[in-house]
Design a protein that fits this description.
By secondary structure, this protein is of the alpha+beta class. It has three helices and nine strands, in the order αββββααβββββ. Helices cover 15% and strands 50% of the residues. Strands 1, 2, 3, 4, 5, 6, 7, 8 and 9 form a nine-stranded antiparallel beta sheet that branches.
Length: 137
């Protein structure tokens, strides 16, 4: 299973996400990041040496390659409309490439499981939005 066309369109329309990594001592860390989705992988990066010194990169380099991403937005507060996708994945150490913020070092994140909700952008009803779970292979 993979992302639906609607999910891919949404992921390509969003430029930011929250990325969670785990330090070797078990401490979770979450940060906002610029995000690029190429249809298969997510890319998170920045300019050279400064990106290598970030906690997210140090956590992945230390062997904590399991990560989580949340890409979401609030379409409206009244009526209340939110949509988003949560992704579990595996991060690779940074490689040189040209990405959405220019040349630099980027970590590639391969999705393993995702949950999406309200891709149609509908107001919330009497119950919370149902989610769609997908296992990525």
């Amino acid at each position: 299973m993979s992302f639906t066309e609607e999910e891919v369109e949404y992921l390509r329309s969003q430029m930011t996400a929250r990325l969670a990594t785990v330090a070797p001592d078990g401490q979770p860390d979450v940060v906002p990041v610029a995000l690029e989705f190429d249809g298969t992988h997510f890319w998170v990066g920045g300019p050279g040496e400064s990106f290598l010194g970030t906690r997210k990169v140090r956590n992945v380099a230390a062997g904590s390659r399991n990560v989580a991403l949340v890409v979401d937005d609030m379409v409206s507060f009244d009526p209340f409309i939110v949509r988003g996708i949560r992704v579990y994945g595996i991060a690779d150490p940074p490689v040189e490439r040209v990405g959405m913020i220019g040349p630099g070092l980027y970590m590639r994140i391969t999705p393993t499981v995702s949950w999406s909700w309200n891709m149609a952008g509908e107001p919330v009803g009497e119950v919370w939005y149902p989610s769609r779970r997908a296992v990525h292979t």
